[in-house]
């Protein structure tokens, strides 16, 4: 059996493992959202359940954007959120974004991971960080944060919450 060495293990390898694991958990959550709850929101300032779920699924595309470009400039972008009509459409959307993100990570060298990446709106720069820092904070941590919010939406609607980082009272594993 071959073991990973410093030469065969690059930055992307660890990120691919994390994204693969976390995306499977996210998929379990998305699969549980019934269309009749799409319009639910726990507070007037909150997103609807479908908008939050779509956001969680769509944010995976930021991995692709970070790996393949040096910046994201909102100026002049024509952004229209997708409105899935079914749970299956939502899950399919997520799966496509994850596949593209994994492919982008596979093609990103350690050298590229250390290059700067900028988020801006025209001349207004929100931040510039290395690609690896952007992937860890703006992409991965941000997605897991919103996924956590989505798990609360499930709980508030008596929809069983799957195991996330350990046993779930709803899965009968506690």
Q: In words, what does this structure look like?
A:
The structure is a single chain. With 174 residues, this protein is mainly alpha-helical. Helix content is 51%, strand content 9%. The protein contains 6 helices and 3 strands. The chain has helices at residues 11-31, 49-58, 61-68, 87-106, 110-113, 131-156, and strands at 71-73, 116-121, 124-130. Strands 1-2-3 form a 3-stranded mixed beta sheet. Strand 2 and strand 3 (124-130) form a beta hairpin. The longest helix is centred in the last third of the chain and has 26 residues, at 131-156. The model has no long low-confidence stretch (mean pLDDT 93).
Stretches where pLDDT falls below 50 for ≥5 residues? none
Oligomer: single chain
* Helical content band: 40-55%
The secondary-structure element order is HHHEHHEEH
Query: How many individual β-strands?
Result: 3
Describe the structure using short key phrases.
174 residues, mainly alpha, 6 helices, 9% strand
Strand-helix topology:
Blueprint: H1 11-31, H2 49-58, H3 61-68, E1 71-73, H4 87-106, H5 110-113, E2 116-121, E3 124-130, H6 131-156
Parallel strand pairs: 1-2
Antiparallel strand pairs: 2-3
Helix pairs in contact: 1-4, 1-6, 2-4, 2-6, 3-4, 3-6
């Amino acid at each position: 059996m071959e073991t990973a060495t410093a030469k065969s293990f690059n930055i992307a390898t660890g990120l691919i493992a994390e994204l693969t694991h976390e995306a499977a958990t996210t998929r379990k959550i998305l699969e549980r959202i019934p269309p009749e709850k799409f319009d639910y929101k726990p507070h007037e300032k909150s997103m609807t359940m479908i908008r939050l779920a779509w956001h969680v699924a769509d944010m995976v595309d930021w991995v692709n954007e970070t790996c393949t470009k040096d910046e994201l400039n909102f100026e002049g972008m024509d952004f229209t959120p997708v409105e899935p009509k079914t749970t299956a459409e939502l899950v399919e959307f997520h799966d496509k974004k994850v596949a593209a993100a994994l492919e982008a990570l596979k093609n990103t060298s350690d050298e590229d991971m250390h290059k700067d990446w900028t988020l801006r709106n025209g001349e207004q720069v929100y931040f510039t960080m290395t690609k690896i820092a952007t992937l860890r904070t703006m992409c991965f941590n941000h997605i897991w944060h919103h996924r956590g919010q989505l798990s609360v939406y499930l709980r508030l609607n008596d929809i069983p919450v799957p195991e996330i980082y350990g046993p779930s009272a709803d899965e009968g594993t506690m």
